[in-house]
Amino acid sequence: MRYPAIFALAGDGISISFPDLPGCISAAQDIAQARQRAAEALALYLECSRQGGDPIPQPSPVAAIEASPGQIVYLVQANEL
């Protein structure tokens, strides 16, 4: 599954969140690391949800996600655990 993530750029790094997945967050120092950590966070979130029997929401279309100044929307594919 692929989900949109918001990368919030700041002077001290990048915070990562998934609008469709409350509590699925991470952080990184640069974009390359943010992409990797976002994929890892997404995979872990989905696996924990499956194991816990929690429903997994459908991903929102990227076009439906509004980024604020200093943010970019990035479509993330979950890494296999």
Any overview of this molecule?
With 81 residues, this protein is α+β, with helices and mostly antiparallel strands. It has a single domain, classed as 2-Layer Sandwich (Double Stranded RNA Binding Domain). It has one helix and four strands. A four-stranded antiparallel sheet has the order 3-2-1-4, covered by helices on one side. The longest helix has 22 residues, at 31-52. The radius of gyration is 12 Å and the shape is globular.
What secondary-structure arrangement, pairings included, does this model have?
Layout: E1 2-10, E2 13-17, E3 25-28, H1 31-52, E4 71-77
Antiparallel strand pairs: 1-2, 1-4, 2-3
Keywords, please?
single chain, alpha+beta, 1 helix, 4 strands, 27% helix
In which order are the strands of the major sheet placed?
3-2-1-4
- Helix coverage percent of residues? 25-40%
CATH-level-2 architecture: 2-Layer Sandwich
Q: CATH first level: which class?
A: Alpha Beta
What are the secondary-structure elements, in order, as H or E? Answer: EEEHE
Distinct helical segment count = 1
Give a quick account of the main beta sheet: strands, pairing sense, barrel closure: 4 strands, antiparallel
Distance between the termini: 13 Å
Instruction: Provide the CATH topology.
Output: Double Stranded RNA Binding Domain
Kindly report the average pLDDT value. 94
What is the gyration radius calculated from CA atoms?
Answer: 12 Å
Number of individual domains: 1
**Count of beta strands:** 4
Which structural class matches the secondary elements?
alpha+beta
Beta-strand percentage range: 25-35%
- The low-confidence parts are none
